[in-house]
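Below is how a single chain appears once it has passed through the pipeline. First comes the sequence as given, then the structure the pipeline wrote out for it. We keep one example in the README because the format questions we get most often are answered faster by looking than by reading.
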Amino acid sequence: MHPRHARYDDAPAERRVIVVGDNGLTLRFIKHLIERYAFRVIAVFPEGPGGQRDEIRREAETNRNLVVFTRPQVTAETVREAGLTDAYAVALMDQNDVGNLHLALKIREMSHYLGDESLPRLVIRMYNSGLRDNIQQLLGDSEDGVYVESDADMVADTYALAALQQLPPGEINVWGRRLYLARRRDERAEAQWVVAGGNQAGVELIPEDESEALRYLWLAYDKRPGRIRPRWTKAVLGVKESASTLRGMLNKSLVILAVSLFAIFTAGFFVLLGNDSGSNPAGGEGDVFYLLALLAGGGIDPDMTADPWLKTTHAVVVLTGSLLIPFATGAIVQAVVDRRYALSEGRRTRRVREHVIVVGLGNMGTRVVENLRARRIPVVAIEKNRDAMGVRAARAQGAQVLLGDASSQEILKEADIEHCRSLVAMAKQDEANLEAALSGLECNPGLRTVMRIYNPEFASLIRQNLNRATPPQDAPPHASYSAPEVASARFAQRLTDDKVLVTIPVRGHIAYIEAFEVGADSMMDDAAAHRATKVGSHRLIAVKRAGGTISWNPDAAFRVERGDTLLVVATRKGLNDILERCRPGGADW
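Resulting structure:
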């Protein structure tokens, strides 16, 4: 951010946000805006009962920063009457993609018509990915103050990271380098900084020491990842899966036949290799393989001068070779039939290892599958409804789909739960998700679970009780999140942190990664690098010179100059602090 940009105001009480919608996500979104960012909110929805309207009305009765504005039908004119010209932002949160887009276009048109030069920001909830990705052609992008987001995508990313035991926001790409969030110090990292510390009593961002560190920010080494080891690991895993799949393809009789054929050909190999009688004796292992191939195909002339052992070998191998074609044909036909039957009946088509089991293929469950498959993680999905749209979408992404009840241990065992990374329960009903997770733990006590729970308090209690025996610094094996709570927090950040590079959530607290340009005659002009670090406020990560060279984790004696850009991790108040220090013509120390 350039120093001339506005401050990161912690209490924009005079800023008003118009929120259109009446669902559970809307109610939590409103609470985040008021409680965390101190916005004033005008909730707009149609008159009468429906959705979460009564809950929003009750919230407005006890919260002076929330006002309810209703009309028989919500239109652009309704939004104008609610205070469009004075609004800091308008958030369209209905579960109607076309309706939200139509209303957004009308609001933009009305703003121009009213001569409003400072157009309000627009935050639009939209599920359809194709429409969402191309909407900037109609409304513009974030540079124009338009933020089009999908709650399903936001939530899917959180659940997918939890399934892989990674901390949000996952991989961070800044200035051509990769950063990661971790729970422990790792000497393999090129550099690392403490982001948060604390214990059960509370969390402290940007702490002074590492005695109770909860989150570290790692800088990965600037080199290409090793190729041999990942390829070797993938090759071993592929061989294991192929062998397991082959075992599943062959029935008992085919297995016996295959073993018999192998034994006969092995015996024939050693007889031909050690017997020199006959008109055409073998000259080595290569000749033996050649003779075996001809014998198996029946393409060798009889040798009446050979001794009885060699004649017997010729006869047995030729007769055995005649079984190869029907054997191969039977195996192929069985594999094709079994696969088609498995697909039609919702059974497993192949064995997998180190995979993630996803329960429920609704909107969010399907997005979790897509997110994991984009990371090339094997997925086995379980869905009750054969006609669910997510079944086809999951299979199109390369995931296997089992049709059945995920609380059934038979279905879970068929999904290879003993060899999976984790189980992600994304059904719409809390009890179904909890039952699936507990059933999974009965099958595999060491299972990692991730659950979608609607009520955030209930989700927190489940998470605390399942992880009771886990030390605070260790990665908890069980996670449970409220989808509306996760999505509403992310939507709220779009109204406040449009210039922030990265947002890092830590147990209800938020740290930020941001860049600041050092202005001429500012407090940071010709100052030591340690001046850009303040305990409890902000910590310097890197300095980029005006010429483009970057110094990561500079030492305390490193001198900062005007035109440099500082990359810091900071609290919200810390953003204001470092901004003041980088402003041109700032005050003396």
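The radius of gyration is 32 Å.

See the next section for the split statistics.
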